[in-house]
Every structure is written in structure tokens, then in C-alpha cells.
Amino acid sequence: MLTDNAKIKDLSRDTIHPTPKSQMTTDHGVKMSDTDHWLSVSNGTDVGPALLEDQIAREKIHRFDHERIPERVVHARGTGAHGYFRVFDDRAKKYTFAPVLTDSSRTTPVFVRFSTVQGSKGSADTVRDVRGFAVKFYTAEGNWDVVGNNIPVFFIQDAINFPDFVHAVKPEPHNEVPQGQSAHNNFWDFVGFRPEAAHMVMWAMSDRAIPRSLRMMQGFGVNTFTLINEKGERHFVKFHWAPELGVHSLVWDEALKLGGQDPDFHRKDLEEAIKSGCPPKWTLSIQVVAEKDEHNFDFDILDATKVWPVDEVPLLPIGELCLNRCVDEFFPETEQVAFCTSHVVPGIGFSNDPLLQGRNFSYFDTQISRLGINWEQLPINRPVCPVFNHNRGGAMQHRINKSTVNYHPNREDEVKTVPPLEGGYTEFMEKVIGLKQRVRTPKFQEHYNQAQMFYHSLTPYEKQHLINAYCFELSHCDDERVYKRYTDLLNKIDFDLAVTVARKVNGVVPDKPARETYPKRDSYLSQAFFAPKEPTIASRRIAILIADGFNEIEVQGVRAMLAGAKANCFLIGPRRSKIYSEGQAVGSGTGLVADHHFEDQRSTMFDAVYVPSGSEHAKTLMKTGRAIHWIREAFAHCKSIGAIGEGASVVHKALDTVEHLQFNLNRGDDSVTSSYGVVTAGTYNVNSAATDTLKIAPG
Ligand code: HDD
């Protein structure tokens, strides 16, 4: 696997490798003999006053006092990884001359940071929220940042509304509540007043906002950018990332529980996948619209609250992103990485999308308060190509320019601008005529068509989840002006949706639809569209529930097969120590050491559960409330459950209230039964039974 690229080599200049032989020094390099006792005056019996002269203690405390920097004003909670990007061939050459998008002989290093938007740095990973998907490409022509989300549209159309939107969604000003969620008066108040948010709110209430994994979500550049080709022609473009593993979500109950059981669920999942040899991959596709076709749509293609339906503007897959290396240290890499939508490379440009225009100002600005004016010199942010210019000074300047001149032009003929044909960035010459005014043009004033299209493109279960989410969130609003206004607005999207939600939350129940239904549908909008090409259980977490007396040979066999399919298996038992196998006396003989006990890990953290055979083990599990709860909860969350022999009896006991489930309870009957994702086999058979279990496991 290619994990050593130009950026990793570049970072190695600043990477320190402490060893047991490393000697501890002060920051000014003097070796230290004691860092555990503050220098004080003592007579050997009594504690005396501490001395300020202790430079070692002072330095330690000073450094500690200033460890924190301001967290990001939004997207504070995040996790990142290194990787690479490669295009398949030069098919994008028709649209751009940027080598990063056209030269298949290149491997471009990337750093990706995923994030939630609302919560603080220490909030939980699985909250209902939009996920940030920010990609920094370290190209030979300079850094290119695609600062996107896992949802293709945005809440507002014009960047000037961003501070209002963020104030409204963040914890309320009087009591700093709530953390990591939009279920509060201010958010719903704001979006009730701004119908342009209706479409994005639908997405935020859908399963997209509770992804199973950062590796199983799409990414979108959201804004409309432009591509310029060698002939000087310009196309509008949207960027799409599609995960190799398909798009999958948690169910709400899981997301809520994980928030407490494992607030780091997503960041640990990313690390586990990379370290276990399953680096996540995404395909980059572009949608392009020629300049001449800009106005051929019933929406404005520069409006970030709209998608470009794929049947109108097809996707062109052009390359692959792979994240194959975890960071060495969180703060210098993931915390200090800084993205700017304004950072593009030759062949890529902006559009007049009013949200993008404002973003292009905001990102550089925020890095100044977060990291200081020289933030681009930080190791994680610096380009892998040479940087020369006459920008000087500023706090924390690292570069030493060996020159007598620092201006342009100069008598030394040093550091000159570069003509466009030799690689200098040049803006596309766009004719612009207009009156200076504060406006929203007519097409920017239609807000419900695509909200309807999204809703009506979902599968029935996605719709149900979305309705549940509206009910949950609006029930958390206790100001009736807020929930009445919003339920009233919902009727502009769908009558049945509005009636159901309004009845549940005491909103305005409509008696007829507020408008005609927009007829378009787009199956691409449902996440069901994104099943993986090849069903796989690679990197999925499978729990094997065992107690003393379990069938070890069977467990070893099934575990080997699951490992062969690259799943991550974990033994869960009554204690985290040896669990003795069938026929062995407890306390002696063979067995396996459980990775976790029933209480410290819960079914929510796994994708599937398997209960092996073994009569004593089965008896114990049946008597263990937590083990029974494990199986019930996994079933309720639609996880795959596999069981063999007496293990099937345990599953049967746990699920005895579920109608229509069929089980194979007779040991000796080696046929396989499957019902509602529960797969049971009478006996363990390397060649048939367990193999069938494996096939069905992804659910
Ligand atoms: Fe933003 C961070 C994505 C609109 C201003 N934004 C930030 C990050 C992502 C996005 C992924 C985290 C970057 C990281 O990991 O460091 N933002 C978006 C998307 C938007 C969007 C997809 C709509 C298309 N943002 C937006 C607007 C503004 C900002 C309209 C301001 C006018 N965003 C910021 C910011 C942040 C930020 C305040 C906070 C930290 C940072 O930039 O580096 O400047």
C-alpha cells in the first residue's frame, strides 16, 4: 500500500521520533535532571515556599497554560487521515487542464478532515448533524482544497446569512444549550423564517445526518465551481465523492445510545479500518454544465440550495481517493489543518455562486484568528511545491529569505510572476454587466420544488425515519410560535408529512396541500442507490457472544472465515479474560480470551452478532440479561444475527416475542434457516453452514 508520498516525506522534516534513549531537555535544549519537584526552600522536614526562579517548572506551566487554541467556529469536532488521489485517465481533459484531474501518471497526496458542524470539539460523533468532508490536495501546482459536506446542498444561499444561521444552530446564547444537536427553538425558529433552508433541512432530518461510518458517506463540493480547458472554454462543475462501501446510516436509537456509549465511535472506526488494512476509498465524479447552458434549468445552477438532478446532468467518474494513513499526532495535523475554498489551482476557478464568493473571504480570515497569519507555513498546510513571494513577517514567521530585495519588480530580477502559458494562475475573463444592488434574483426565490423532489425520491423506510426526526426535533422546541410556523411550512413540501408531524408535535394540522407537487424524482437522492458494487463485510465489526462451555473449534473456524473476508471479529464474554471451551473445567484447559465483556461493549458498536454452539455456554447466556439484551437490541437495529446449534436456542429465547421467525433448534440438522436477517444453522459445517452465514452477514 502506498502510504509514503510527497506530503508524508515533507512532514517527516518536522516529525520527531522519541526513543527510550532520548534525553529530556528544556525547550532551549538544556538537559533536565528533575521535572517532578518544583524548586522550593525546605529544611528537609517542612515544606517551604516555591521559588519563581525555577525556570524548569515555569516553562512546564507556561507551555501547559497556552496549549489550547480557539476551536473552529463551526466544524470544531473532527478527525483526519492522509491518503492519495489518482485519476483513472485523462477523460476530464475536455473540461480542464489541471493535471490533478487529468494526469493519470500522478498520485496526488491528500489530507481529509471529517467533522460535525454544530458541536464543540468534545461533542459526540454520532449526533444528528451534517458531516464536513474537507479534502486538501497537495498538487505540484499548489494546494487545492475542496471544502465540502456529506450533503449536496446548504441551508442558505448568500454568505451574508451565515453568521445568523450559525448563531441560530449553535447552543442558545442565554444558557449554552444544546450541545451537538439542532433540536432547539433557535434553529427551528431561524429555518422557519428562511424557507430557502427547507431542502437542506430535509437532508439534515434524513438518515444522511447519522452515518454508520465516515467511510460510508458521500461527499459533495456543494458549491458550483468552474473548470477551464486548454482552449480557454469554461464549464460549471460540481464535485461528488461516492464511497466504495456504499452509503449506510445508523438508526436513530443507535445514534442516541452511541453518543453516550462511545462518543468517539466514528473516529475510532476510521482508525480501525485503516490500521486493519481496509483503507476507505471514494470515487470522484464531476457534473459539468457548459457556459451556454447555464440558464437551461428551472433552478439557478449557482444556487447552493439546489442539486443538479443526475438525469439532467450526468455524473462523470474521474478518479479515486484513498485514505490509507492515520495521523501521527492529532493537534499538529488534524487540529492545525486549515482549508480555504479560495485555494484552487490553474484549470479550476470559481463561479458567481453567492455562497462561494463569501466563503472565499471567510476561510482565510478565520485561520488568522485560529492559527495566526503564517498558518500556511505550518507543516500540515504547506504545499509540496516551492513557495516564493514577497509576503514577509507576521507572528511566527518560519521562512528565512536570503535576499536583499522583498518587493516586485526588483533590480535583482528575483521572484518574478509567471505567464499563464508557463503555469501562472489567471482568472477567466468573464463579461459582467449589472447594477450594484442587494438582490436575490428570481430563480433564487423558489424553495420547495427540490425539497419535494428529495422527499418523494426516498424509499418508504427513509421517509419514515425522516418523519420521526422532524417529530423528535420539533418536540424539543417548547415555543409554540416555532413549531407552529415550521409545521405550517412543512405543508408546502408534503401534505401527509405535514399532517403526521403536526399531529405528533401539536403543530398546525393542514386541511389541504399548500401547493401542487413538483413531479420530478431522482433515485440518486436515496441512499439506497449506493449499495456497494460487490457486497462485502470487509471492515465490519462482528461480535461473537461466548460463555464458558462454548464450542471453540467452531468459533475458531467461523472466526478464520470472517477474518478471511476481512471482517473484524471480537469475542464478547461475561468477563475480559479466558473463557473456557466446551468440555473444559472452568479455571483450567483451553479457551479463548474475550476482547470485551457484555457490559463494556454494546451491540450498538457492532454490525452483526454470532452465537456459537455449546450447551453450557448457551445455558449461561440464556440466564444473562445483558446477553439477551445484546441480541434483542441487535435485532431491533436490523443487524445480522447468526447462530449455530445451541446458540440458536439463545437467539430463540431472546427473540421469542418476534412472530414468524423460524429456527433450527435440533442439533444434528445442518440445514440453514434465514429470517429477518437471523441466520441459524443446526451444526457447524466448514463447507456449508458457516459459509452461508458469511454470505448473508452484510444485511
Ligand atoms: Fe464552512 C469550516 C463546509 C459554508 C465559513 N466549512 C468548514 C468546514 C467544512 C465546511 C467542511 C471544516 C473545515 C475543516 O475541517 O477545517 N461550509 C462548508 C460547506 C458550506 C459552507 C459545504 C456550504 C456550501 N462556511 C460556509 C459559509 C461560510 C463558512 C457560507 C462563511 C461565510 N466554514 C466557515 C468558517 C470555517 C468553516 C467559519 C470554520 C473553521 C474553518 O472555516 O476553517 O470559516
Automatic annotation (TrEMBL):
Q: Which GO terms describe its molecular function?
A: catalase activity; heme binding; metal ion binding
Q: Does the keyword Heme apply?
A: yes
The Basic and acidic residues compositionally biased stretches are 1-16
Task: Show the GO cellular component annotation of the record.
Answer: cytosol
Q: What domain of life does the UniProt record list for this protein's source?
A: Eukaryota
Q: Which UniProt keywords apply?
A: Heme, Hydrogen peroxide, Iron, Metal-binding, Oxidoreductase, Peroxidase
Q: Which BP terms does GO give this entry?
A: hydrogen peroxide catabolic process; response to oxidative stress
Instruction: Identify which residues the record assigns to the active site.
Output: H75, N149
Q: Which Gene3D superfamilies match?
A: 1.20.1370.20, 3.40.50.880, Catalase core domain
Binding of heme, residues: Y363
Q: What family is this protein classified in?
A: Belongs to the catalase family.
Name under which the protein is recorded: Catalase
Query: What is the protein's species of origin?
Result: Coprinellus micaceus (Glistening ink-cap mushroom)
